[in-house]
């Protein structure tokens, strides 16, 4: 009985999708050549595929519901394994050791290409962590994050091109420019509510890109800036091979630095204010928190990181043009934050690795890459909206008046 | 008429109802009293199908309704006046009333019913073309009750009709509630903070604590029950 | 760092094992490895894939003849989706697989980004399609060659044609804000201003993907321009032309080889009549070109796409240079490229000091009766 | 006794609607002043105006905090008003549900602490000491309000009555000289209301602050207030001791209803 | 003066399209407070469906009017079906999720649909037949505006009027407004809100399809990417007018259309999009709820 109705449901779904995809999947027209191609095979594929998938879909929905119920019934959330591991020192320290060793020997056992990819992934880790301050902690949806990335990249590109300034000199300048733009753009718009903020930041992101594209005198337009210097090693320019390794370690350092800073920030007076602001703005203000200033600090800090990574990006690719800073890039960074788990540092790291490395290694399916990317976003949101790692924010555990429970050492 | 059997409902990660049994007979006014957070509103929302019960059964006139969608439940004759009134702010008073009759198709008797509720609450007649949001608190409560009546319910669920109203208005509204029950023979399920007032109009009462029914009796006896007096009547 | 733990480690372990498997697929030494890089997926794939096919055809031929220097030729195809940041990864991946020469990349931006990497490892790179002038003219990339003429040559031809043949005094210059289109338009404007013979009455970029171009078209009309010189690709060009003709404007439309494409005529239909476009010199009579096209048809069952012949020529030139140079060494190959003529579908070519092909240039075409016909 | 806050001719308009209409009100040092009136009379709007969430259309609000310079609070931003020593609770509880009870109170300390971004990152001596002091102070307040047993719970998981108390605790953490309570007893049963009653009196005694209170529970209002002001349609229609208000015919007509007299 | 009128008419055409698509955004936002990022893709799918059906019919020798009607019909039906399905898959399971989740899901859906069409069809631009008939009487005014432009504007106007009537006077319309204002209460009076939300998506998608067919036959070509930029612009228009407000979306569409048209005509098309976005930013800063949106004072 149950089985029958399930099959009937799937059959209906399958029929519906066969209907739905009929014109696009089955018919291919070439109006230029006045040709029409009928691909009935696709219809069969869609039919069978959606029949099977609809079972899977419903099964997963049921699983999700059951999971929720279990949590309710238990009355408490399951402590995520990640937290358990991080709290168990016997497990955690060896793991950390193995990981560190792996990180250090990585560039020496793998090819330059692998190192390059890893560096790229790490860049996205840092970008994700930066955006995480804005979106995850302060709850401000920023769809134009890539604008600050562009600002950083062009800061280095232009200073290097015109004045020959090196990476190390410009890195703080890039961070500063990011922060400056964050404040300039943030100041007027931060009093807007969630979705409006999202759309205005999207607008700003596009404006920055369009200006870079059109203002030839400043930015060299769409042809971009080439021959940007790689980071120097105590004033020496390195060969390509060693530069790759050097950039990799630089990136590792930067990522560690970012994790350190973000971790400290989120367990501080400022971090608390961000989280509270995300929870309830009005109550926050009534408690004496300056809404604008606090939001601005989150926005500017996120932008600072984007600016810094922009400099790094320019130094790594040695060539920049506006095409690298499209909305899609913002969407990818945002997806990293959301996929990993908003507000969670470990989540963002894993999110970056999954979203950047997986497509890189699935090049064989390169045509389907973006298709899968889109599908993954939807599926994640439907079945695991809290991200891969739900936020296990460390809360203040009060353990007595003499031992203030700020146990984050 | 309405029967809740061991209803358990989860709300967020809190179990709001921990096995509730309630029975309402035709033509009665019953009241459910208890402190905030005891699960009174959740009980009503479970009956209306807004929050689906995790387990347990709800029967209305013998039919199980715990797996029905809210609109089906309304069509069976259960209307609710939710806590906080929930007037459609931008719709006019008339439109609000028409929304109350959303599932009905009998045009003529709809206009009859509108006349009826205007008779109950004459002030609404003056306000008929005003947007719901511009009404005062008391008027909104009247509109909310009228809207619920527009569905011609057999069972009317009222959630905290006295909330935030001046004592004067509260008195008026409770008078009308009694009137609806006696004139229209509408069964009424009343949830109230103000236990004193509620028990005065109701025939029977249930006392709820922490998601469980702890006491069930006729109103008179509840009014004189020592425990109830102490905890809910503040005597 | 406490946050990094179990699952992260697991992920890392999985990734590690993945990478090991991938990096283990080394190719047996001995073969000559030719990297083919360009956009092979995404919306620009139609510019990149013909190059892969050209390379495959050339290599098949050569391997059938027993390879060169007694070694088989092997292709390593990598996608860069025309994005600079991806192109650098693509380049380093090719290098880590020890390619000897690279055929690619397709887009100028990606090429520029990748060249930095090839340059340091002294790898000869030859693009069939990157027309950005500084690639060769800046002298920054001695390892770079191309079988297509640079944008400024096209712009010059367009401007000369408008001034000398059409004898126009007022000209509007438009572009699509892209790397290629805008670069070309910049040159065209420069040449026009330098000549002093005509006035640039309008210089603007249009936005690809916009709903409607009627405002720009009205503006062209209002400017009183006798001709539009457009830098960009055919989709926007056909929209512009169609709108102009629908508004009964007789303004000449002169464009580049992004427009000299049969699709343009098919899309714009009757409105395409009379449009001028520069394009690579006509090689339709060249027997090698005919043979290459036939081979493509035979192998893949369709007509070749964009830059196919340029890519074919580039592949031939690269392999010929290795053969003539007698090794895959940078010096030998680049010398051979600069000194030895090679017979290709584009004609007999060799490369000048900067890396541009000698004997490759542009001619002006006009749409007549639904076909591009060389002017004069 | 000296007035700590003086409101003169305060008017608030929303579009065409006048929510508060030329209202005069004085809050004296260490008094409990109750504000009653039907819903929509403008009581909460008055609170919003005092705390800077809305700007008044007309009128003035001045404060004279004990031991500090007097001044106006017209047009100040909410956070500044709080820093000046006026703080509030909300009619519909506005806690930070995903933060712990302790963290909620620590947010109240925000305006009395000063660690900045740099301090947070480098975590110098001063910062660490300040954090410690914040934790201790917050815990102290939780003890005082009688909800210290929940210290590590998430605020959202607290029983209803405790949430109300936590709001008061959070407000106290900002060290106010006037505490505005918006229907603190709403939704409480008589037992919980009794606890609240004691707490409010205790706060007045121990913290030596003035309390301005909106409440519908007449029993609570009558028992703890020093004075009562009655609002209707944005205007103050009466003011006086509980006894006076109880017998004021205007108030009976507009708000209490005949029955209440009996 | 003639130049001005020409630009004005051009802006009107462009604005009509923005308005048609903005309506879908605004209706969906009004009812479930979601920025339906995939809406632009619905528009693209509508255009593709029309192209495919028109090509097939052309091969079978149908006459022009029949092709126009059938292709448009197919576009509307299929777009609606896609809108309906998208809501069921990507948004419905997320009704109670935090606000950001459905937005991410929508971005994912948008990327998915783009690539779905890219893979199933082609990345090339395809010529779109000029389906809109030429009117004889327009010959005289050709220098100002074409038949197609007129047709686009008229269709938009008619659709607007019909839509306003539907929302204002029908039961469904009332239910939509009620659901938008207070979803829970709408359920309590017996509105099947799932159905209402589906209907909203269907209507919005149908309007997008109309926009897609009209503009594609005016411009003459489409590819898989046309939805993205137009989608963002239309969304801008919706926000400009006050998201959630139907007349707002229309007004926003026209204002955006004219801004772009006049900015191009009198300044430069280089910064066409910059003007559009700058306008958006300015409006939101000075009138955060949009031109016709009511800035309901926040309830405290």
Would you kindly provide a written description of the structure presented here, covering whatever features stand out?
With 409 residues, chain A is an all-alpha fold. Chain A is built from 17 helices and 2 strands. Chain A has a two-stranded antiparallel ribbon. In chain A, strand 1 and strand 2 (35-38) form a beta hairpin. In chain A, helix 1 (2-20) crosses helix 3 (40-74), helix 8 (167-189) packs antiparallel against helix 14 and helix 12 (269-279) crosses helix 14. Chain B has 10 helices and 10 strands. The longest helix of chain B has 18 residues, at 167-184. Chain D has 262 residues and is an alpha/beta fold. Chain D is built from 10 helices and 10 strands. In chain D, strands 6-7-8-3-9-10 form a 6-stranded mixed sheet, sandwiched between helices. Chain D has a 4-stranded antiparallel sheet with strand order 2-1-4-5, with helices on one face. The interface between A and E is large, with 60 and 68 residues.
Instruction: Tell me roughly what share of residues is in helical segments of chain E.
Output: over 70%
Give the SSE string of chain B. EEEHEEHEHHHHEHEHEEHH
CATH architecture of the largest domain in chain B: 3-Layer(aba) Sandwich
Poorly predicted runs of chain E: 296-300
Counting H and I runs of at least 4 residues, what is the number of helices of chain B?
10
Task: Classify the secondary structure makeup of chain E into a structural class.
Answer: mainly alpha
Distance between the termini of chain B: 34 Å
Task: Provide a quick synopsis of the model.
Chain C is of the alpha/beta class. The relative contact order of chain C is 0.12. Chain C contains 13 helices and 15 strands.
From the structure above, extract its key features.
heteropentamer; B: 235 residues; alpha/beta; Rossmann fold; 2 domains; six-stranded mixed sheet; four-stranded antiparallel sheet; 10 helices; D: 262 residues; 10 strands
Write the topology of this structure.
The complex is a heteropentamer of chains A (409), B (235), C (376), D (262) and E (300).
Chain B: E1 2-11, E2 14-24, E3 29-33, H1 40-48, E4 55-60, E5 63-64, H2 70-76, E6 78-81, H3 93-100, H4 107-120, H5 122-126, H6 137-149, E7 155-159, H7 167-184, E8 187-192, H8 195-201, E9 204-209, E10 212-218, H9 219-224, H10 226-233
Parallel strand pairs in B: 3-8, 3-9, 6-7, 7-8
Antiparallel strand pairs in B: 1-2, 1-4, 4-5, 9-10
Helix pairs in contact in B: 3-6
Chain C: H1 6-23, E1 32-38, H2 45-64, E2 73-79, H3 84-96, E3 101-103, H4 108-120, E4 124-127, H5 134-137, E5 144-146, H6 151-165, E6 170-175, H7 179-195, E7 199-205, H8 214-223, E8 227-231, H9 234-246, E9 252-255, H10 262-268, E10 276-280, H11 287-300, H12 308-325, H13 330-339, E11 342-344, E12 347-351, E13 357-358, E14 362-368, E15 371-374
Helix pairs in contact in C: 2-12, 3-4, 6-7, 9-10, 12-13
Chain D: E1 3-14, E2 17-28, E3 32-36, H1 43-50, E4 58-63, E5 71-72, H2 78-84, E6 86-88, H3 101-108, H4 117-122, H5 125-145, H6 160-172, E7 178-182, H7 190-207, E8 210-214, H8 218-224, E9 227-232, E10 235-240, H9 242-246, H10 249-256
């Amino acid at each position: 009985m149950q089985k029958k109705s399930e099959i009937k449901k799937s059959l209906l779904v399958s029929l519906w999708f066969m209907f739905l995809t009929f014109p696009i999947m089955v018919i291919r027209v070439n109006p230029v050549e006045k040709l029409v191609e009928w691909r009935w095979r696709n219809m069969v594929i869609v039919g069978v595929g959606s029949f099977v998938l609809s079972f899977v879909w419903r099964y997963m929905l049921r699983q999700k519901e059951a999971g929720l119920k279990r949590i309710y019934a238990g009355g408490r959330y399951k402590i995520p394994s990640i937290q358990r591991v991080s709290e168990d020192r016997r497990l955690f320290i060896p793991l950390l050791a193995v990981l560190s060793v792996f990180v250090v020997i990585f560039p020496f056992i793998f090819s330059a290409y692998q190192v390059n990819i890893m560096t790229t992934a790490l860049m996205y880790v840092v970008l994700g962590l930066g955006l995480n301050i804005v979106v995850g902690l302060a709850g401000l949806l920023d769809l134009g994050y890539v604008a600050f990335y562009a600002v950083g990249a062009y800061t280095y590109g232009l200073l290097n091109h015109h004045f020959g300034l090196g990476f190390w000199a410009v890195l703080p300048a890039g961070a500063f420019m990011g922060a400056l733009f964050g404040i300039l753009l943030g100041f007027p718009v931060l009093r807007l509510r969630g979705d409006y903020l999202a759309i205005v930041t999207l607008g700003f992101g596009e404006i920055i890109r369009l200006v870079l594209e059109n203002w030839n005198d400043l930015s060299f337009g769409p042809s971009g800036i080439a021959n940007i210097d790689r980071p120097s090693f105590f004033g020496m320019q390195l060969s390509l091979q060693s530069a790759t390794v050097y950039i990799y370690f630089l990136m590792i350092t930067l990522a560690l630095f970012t994790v350190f800073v973000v971790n400290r920030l989120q367990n501080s007076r400022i971090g608390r204010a961000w989280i509270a602001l995300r929870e309830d703005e009005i109550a926050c203000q009534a408690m004496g928190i300056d809404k604008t200033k606090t939001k601005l600090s989150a926005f500017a800090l996120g932008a600072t990181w984007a600016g810094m990574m922009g400099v790094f990006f320019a130094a790594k690719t040695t060539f920049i043009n506006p095409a690298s800073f499209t909305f899609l890039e913002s969407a990818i960074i945002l997806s990293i934050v959301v996929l990993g788990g908003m507000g969670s540092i470990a989540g963002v790291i894993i999110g970056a690795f999954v979203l950047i490395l997986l497509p890189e290694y699935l090049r064989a399916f390169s045509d389907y890459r973006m298709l899968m990317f889109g599908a993954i976003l939807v599926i994640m949101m439907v079945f695991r909206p809290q991200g891969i790692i739900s936020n296990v924010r460390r809360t203040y555990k009060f353990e007595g008046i003499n031992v203030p429970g700020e146990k984050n050492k | 008429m309405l029967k809740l059997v061991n209803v358990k409902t989860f709300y967020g990660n809190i179990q709001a109802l921990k096995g509730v049994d309630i029975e309402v007979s035709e033509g009665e006014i019953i009241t459910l009293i208890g402190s905030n957070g005891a699960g009174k509103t959740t009980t009503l929302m479970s009956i209306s199908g807004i929050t689906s019960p995790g387990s347990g059964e709800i029967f209305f006139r013998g039919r199980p309704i715990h797996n029905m969608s809210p609109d089906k439940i309304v069509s069976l004759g259960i209307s609710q006046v939710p806590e906080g009134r929930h007037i459609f702010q931008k719709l006019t008073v008339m439109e609000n009333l028409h929304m109350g009759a959303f599932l009905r198709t009998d045009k003529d008797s709809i206009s009859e019913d509108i006349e009826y509720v205007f008779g109950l609450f004459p002030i609404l007649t003056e306000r008929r073309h005003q947007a719901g949001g511009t009404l005062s608190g008391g008027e909104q409560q009247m509109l909310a009750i009228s809207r619920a009546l527009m569905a011609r319910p057999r069972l009317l669920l009222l959630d905290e009709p006295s909330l935030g109203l001046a004592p004067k208005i509260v008195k008026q509204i409770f008078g009308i509630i009694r009137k609806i029950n006696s004139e229209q023979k509408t069964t009424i399920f009343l949830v109230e903070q103000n236990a004193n007032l509620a028990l005065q109009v109701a025939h029977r009462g249930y006392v709820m604590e922490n998601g469980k029914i702890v006491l069930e009796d006729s109103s008179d006896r509840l009014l004189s029950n020592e425990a109830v007096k102490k905890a809910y009547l503040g005597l | 760092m406490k946050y990094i733990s179990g699952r992260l480690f697991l992920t890392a372990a999985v990734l590690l094992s993945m990478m090991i498997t991938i990096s283990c697929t080394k190719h047996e030494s001995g073969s000559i490895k030719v990297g083919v890089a360009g956009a092979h997926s995404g919306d620009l794939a139609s510019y990149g894939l013909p190059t892969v096919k050209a390379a495959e055809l050339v290599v098949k031929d050569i391997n059938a003849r027993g390879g060169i220097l007694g070694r088989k030729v092997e292709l390593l195809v990598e996608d860069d989706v025309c994005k600079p940041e991806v192109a650098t990864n693509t380049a380093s991946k090719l290098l880590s697989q020890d390619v000897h020469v690279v055929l690619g990349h397709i887009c100028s931006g990606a090429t520029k980004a990748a060249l930095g990497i090839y340059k340091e490892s002294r790898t000869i790179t030859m693009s069939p399609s990157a027309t950005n002038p500084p690639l060769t003219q800046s002298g920054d990339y001695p390892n770079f060659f191309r079988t297509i003429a640079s944008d400024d040559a096209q712009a010059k031809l367009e401007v000369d044609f408008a001034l000398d043949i059409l004898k126009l005094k007022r000209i509007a210059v438009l572009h699509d804000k892209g790397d290629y289109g805008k670069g070309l338009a910049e040159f065209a404007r420069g040449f026009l201003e330098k000549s002093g013979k005509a006035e640039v009455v309008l210089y603007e970029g249009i936005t690809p993907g916009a709903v409607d171009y009627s405002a720009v078209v009205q503006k062209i009309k209002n400017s009183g321009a006798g001709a539009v010189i457009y830098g960009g690709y055919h989709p926007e060009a056909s929209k512009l032309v169609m709108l102009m003709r629908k508004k009964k404007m007789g303004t000449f439309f002169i464009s580049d080889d992004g427009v000299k494409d049969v699709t343009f005529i098919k899309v714009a239909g009757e409105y395409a009549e009379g449009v001028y476009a520069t394009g690579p010199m006509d090689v339709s009579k060249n027997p090698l070109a005919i043979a290459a096209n036939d081979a493509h048809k035979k192998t893949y069952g369709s007509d070749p796409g964009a830059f196919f012949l340029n890519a074919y020529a580039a592949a031939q030139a690269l392999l010929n240079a290795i053969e003539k140079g007698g090794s895959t060494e940078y010096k030998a190959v680049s010398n051979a490229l600069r000194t030895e003529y090679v017979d290709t579908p584009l004609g007999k070519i060799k490369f000048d000091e900067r890396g541009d092909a000698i004997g490759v240039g542009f001619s002006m075409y006009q749409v007549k009766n639904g076909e591009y016909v060389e002017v004069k | 006794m000296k007035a700590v806050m003086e409101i003169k001719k305060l008017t608030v308009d929303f579009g065409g609607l006048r929510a508060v209409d030329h209202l005069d009100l004085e809050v004296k040092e260490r008094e409990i002043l109750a504000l009653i009136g039907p819903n929509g009379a403008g009581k909460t709007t008055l609170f919003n105006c005092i705390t800077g969430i809305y700007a008044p259309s007309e009128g003035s609000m001045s404060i004279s905090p004990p031991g500090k310079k007097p001044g106006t609070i017209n047009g100040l931003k909410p956070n500044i008003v709080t820093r000046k020593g006026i703080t509030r609770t909300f009619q519909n509880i506005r806690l930070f549900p995903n933060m712990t009870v302790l963290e909620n109170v620590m947010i109240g300390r925000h305006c009395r602490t000063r660690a900045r971004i740099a301090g947070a990152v480098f975590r110098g001596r001063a910062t660490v000491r300040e954090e410690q002091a914040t934790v201790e102070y917050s815990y102290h307040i939780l003890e005082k309000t009688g909800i210290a047993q929940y210290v590590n719970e998430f605020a959202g998981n607290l029983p209803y009555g405790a949430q109300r108390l936590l709001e008061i605790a959070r407000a106290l953490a900002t060290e106010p000289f006037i505490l505005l309570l918006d229907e603190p007893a709403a939704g409480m049963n008589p037992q919980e209301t009794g606890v609240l009653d004691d707490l409010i009196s205790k706060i007045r005694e121990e913290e030596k602050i003035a309390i301005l209170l909106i409440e519908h529970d007449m029993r609570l209002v009558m028992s703890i207030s020093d004075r009562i002001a009655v609002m209707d349609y944005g205007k103050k229609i009466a003011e006086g001791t509980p006894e006076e208000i109880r017998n004021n015919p205007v108030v009976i007509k507009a708000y209490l209803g005949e029955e209440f007299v009996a | 003066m003639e130049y001005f009128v020409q630009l004005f008419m051009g802006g009107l055409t462009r604005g009509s399209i923005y308005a048609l698509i903005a309506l879908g955004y605004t209706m969906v936002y009004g009812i479930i407070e979601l920025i339906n990022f995939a809406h632009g893709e619905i528009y693209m799918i509508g255009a593709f469906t029309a192209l495919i059906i028109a090509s097939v019919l052309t091969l079978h020798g149908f006459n022009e009017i029949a092709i126009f009607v059938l292709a448009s019909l197919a576009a509307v039906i299929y777009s609606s079906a896609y809108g309906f399905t998208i809501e069921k898959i990507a948004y419905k399971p997320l009704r109670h999720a935090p606000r950001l989740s459905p937005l991410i899901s929508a971005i994912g859906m948008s990327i998915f649909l783009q690539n779905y069409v890219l893979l199933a069809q082609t990345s090339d631009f395809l010529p779109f037949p000029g389906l809109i008939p030429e009117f004889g009487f327009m010959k005289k005014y050709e220098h100002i505006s074409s038949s197609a432009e007129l047709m686009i504007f008229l269709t938009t106007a008619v659709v607007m009027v019909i839509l306003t009537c539907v929302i204002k006077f029908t039961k469904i319309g009332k239910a939509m407004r009620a659901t938008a204002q207070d979803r829970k209460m709408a359920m309590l009076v017996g509105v099947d809100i799932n159905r209402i939300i589906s209907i909203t998506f269907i209507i919005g998608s149908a309007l997008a399809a109309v926009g897609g067919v009209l503009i594609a036959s005016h411009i003459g070509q489409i590819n898989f990417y046309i939805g993205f930029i137009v989608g963002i612009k239309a969304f801008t228009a919706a926000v400009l007018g006050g998201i959630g407000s139907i007349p707002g979306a229309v007004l926003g569409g026209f204002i955006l259309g004219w801004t772009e048209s006049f900015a191009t005509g009198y300044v430069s098309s280089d910064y066409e999009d910059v003007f559009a976005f700058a306008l958006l930013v300015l409006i939101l800063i000075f009138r955060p709820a949009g031109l016709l949106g009511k800035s309901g004072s926040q309830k405290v």
